[in-house]
Amino acid sequence: MNQDTRYTIIGAGHGGKAMAAHLALMGFRVTLYNRTPERVTAIKARRGIDLESYEGGPHGFARLAAITSDMGEALADADIIMVVVPSSAHADIARLTAPHLRDGQILVLHPGRTLGAIEFNKVLCDLKCTAQIIIAEAETFIYASRSDGPAQARIFRIKEAVPLAALPAKHTAAVLEVLAPAYPQFIDGISVLQTGLNNMGAIFHPALTLLNAGRIESTNGDFQFYIEGVTPSVARVLEELDRERVTVAASLGIRGRTALEWLKMAYDATGDNLNEAIHNQTGYFGIKAPSTLNHRYIFEDVPMSLVPIAALGQRYGVSVAGMDAIIRLACVVHRTDYWRRGRTLAKLGIDRLSVGELTQFVMAGDRCWEP
Q: Which CATH superfamily is domain 198-336 in?
């Protein structure tokens, strides 16, 4: 294992702490960055993180090389930059990192949600960042984790295979090779269009939350989200959204993974329809609903996941009436315009690209490539 590789983790939430601790326990030099110093005060005082884990998983006290709220310091010696923040913060992180990036660095979004790498890249290009870096994104977060305290983290599970793609995809193999000593679980995700359009959270999270809005508000989420919240009618809505997503992918020449296929792959859960498959997924038992509608399942997953998928559908001639209905319901409930706030194609700078041009961009284009 090449332990000379220097990692910087951006974000000290439950995921960032878990990743920083695990990498440090593997012997890598790790710097942890968080924008607000208060979040990392305890970690800085102890100079590390206590990691608990599942039986046989990584555990122990993980000493970090540095803990900082200074982005310049955080990136100065980094070879690989792992961005572990909500996707709604990707653009802000791009603006903060832009002055400090240097040639040869690799930056990975965990995860990108939908078109996250394209958004991050667009911000850097708009800011005239000339550093020759590689931007990549994971399809999902590799850890199931939580924060047990200010300087404590817990890992429940490490996924066995996580698709990852670089922008453009011609750099994916190089990224996988560099990450392999620490994360052999990352596999070729084909392209950032493929990883983004296989974003299952876009299908499950917003609709399930909004269709259970009354129950969430009346019980503060005191019910089993997937088991009691998914009924035959709710599942039919999820199936329609999933059909639209797979059709959007097909319009771009991509074979999208269906929700049923995903449940089989991720959890070995099967059924004749989505309602049956979800209820046959024993891992969903005991998972409570959000306690409030002011939750990332709406304020993150709608603008950063559902809006860009629906926007791609509208651009390339696919009916996305179901997605549009969920987005508009979210706008009403949160009294905002997620179509305006979200990752629209115009905001990403790809609104005028043909399917061929978009494919060329994500597969082999230059970082600030224009058709």
A: N-(1-d-carboxylethyl)-l-norvaline Dehydrogenase; domain 2 (1.10.1040.10)
Are 235 and 275 spatial neighbours (Cβ–Cβ below 8 Å)? yes
- Whether the Cβ atoms of residue 134 and residue 171 lie closer than 8 Å to each other: yes
pLDDT tens string 196-233: 999 999 999 999 999 999 999 999 999 999 999 999 99
Nearest to 326 by CA among 212, 199, 190: 212
Average pLDDT in the chain: 95
Measure the CA–CA gap between 264 and 299, rounded to whole angstroms.
28
- Other C-beta atoms closer than 10 Å to the C-beta of 135 total 27
Q: In what order do the strands lie in the sheet with 143-149?
A: 60-63, 48-53, 152-158, 143-149
The closest of 232, 227, 209, 10 to 105, measured between CA atoms, is 10
User: What does 301-351 look like in DSSP terms, one character per residue?
Assistant: HIIIIIHHHHHHHHHTT---HHHHHHHHHHHHHHTS-HHHHS--HHHHT-T
Q: What count of Cα atoms within 13 Å lies in the side-chain half-sphere of residue 134? A: 23
How much is the average pLDDT of 84-92?
Answer: 96
Which CATH number is correct for 6-196, 3.40.50.170, 3.20.20.30, 1.20.120.530, 3.40.50.720?
3.40.50.720
Side-chain-facing half-sphere of 284: CA atoms under 13 Å: 22
pLDDT tens digits along 109-163: 999 999 999 999 999 999 999 999 999 999 999 998 888 999 999 998 888 889 9
- Location of structure tokens 């059909």: 243
In which band, very low, low, confident or very high, does the pLDDT at 369 lie, cut at 50, 70 and 90?
A: low
**Residue 240 main-chain phi, psi, to 5 deg:** -65, -45
* Residues annotated as catalytic (active site), given as ranges: 205, 301
Instruction: Determine the average pLDDT of the residues in 4-33.
Output: 97
Across residues 278-283, what is the average pLDDT? 89
